[in-house]
Amino acid sequence: MPPLLGIEFLCKVADVISEYLGGITEDLIKDNFVIVYQLLDEMMDNGFPLTTEINTLKDMIAPPNIVSRMLSVVTGGSSNMNTVLPIATTSNWPWRSTDVKYSNNEVYFDLVEEMDVIVNRDGFLIKYEVYGEIRVIARLSGVPELTMTFANPSIINDVSFHPCVQFRPWETHQQLTFVPPDGEFKLMSYRVKKLKNTPIYVKPQFSSTGGLCRVSILVGIRNDPGKQIDYTTLEFPLPSSVASWDLTANHGNISSSPGSKTLTWTIGKMPKDKSPCLSGTMHLEKGMDHLEEFPTLLVKFKIMGIAMSGLRIDRTDVRNVTYSPHKGFRAVSKAANYEIRT
User: Fold this and answer.
1) What count of other Cβ atoms lies within 10 Å of the Cβ of residue 129?
2) What is the pLDDT of residues 84-112, one digit of tens each?
3) Fewest CB within 10 angstroms: 50, 171, 181, 329, which?
4) What are the coiled-coil residue ranges (predicted)?
5) Mean pLDDT of the 176-196 span
């Protein structure tokens, strides 16, 4: 068996159970054991994945609710299986029912990107990659076919698609053609490699002698994305040889977790008129003259309204329907693993 088949199936089982039960914990599985058993029975057949689409499963097995639980207690019955085979199981689109109807037809696209960055102690950029996802919320009647084109599709690598995406249009024209599932789903994921300009810079300085370590950390905007940089935080673990610290910041506040030698500098919105600076001293333990290990700084931030990879959605068309749905687009970029080594 391909190893990734087992991993992917387990992830799908976890997603389905979370969707049904509103989470996945030991108590939830115990309280809803019958439904979990029924789901596993439909999702796996004789050792092979069978029905894994959430919309089809909901047509076959009704999600739990207060009424069904009360009836189960009163009548002693616990089966919530549908006696009629869902139409989607025999259609060309097993992820979607053919009789979906909405009074307001709308589709929303979220372009979510996470940055992986490593900067070495000399300030040189070692790694800068973006992992992105396009998440969709579709509330569309009938069986619409959507086509999405990008202004610059050549920059993306390592693409992975939802099963609804037709692969041939992507191979020939690099456009996405798909009949969407009903509700929320992940349309595709991708990676953009070898980017050059990070949105912010961090300049740390640690110098120690005589049992003291002087600290200066400067943070600022390097490549202005044109949008506000929000929720900026910088955290780093204190070296084991540090006994106490006296650090101040000209913007934001500094905190430490109780029982943990980790400092968190919360900057918030990145100011454009000045560069936030953290400075002060750290006192080393007795017998230590200088700092022998230097911390790695972890940076977090979020930028709404822009994709830092530069990927742009050109247009989205909806076909095979008589209505004109409302379409919404949103982008967000955030730091995932943003390391500054000292």
Assistant:
1) 19
2) 666 655 567 778 877 889 999 999 999 99
3) 171
4) none
5) 92
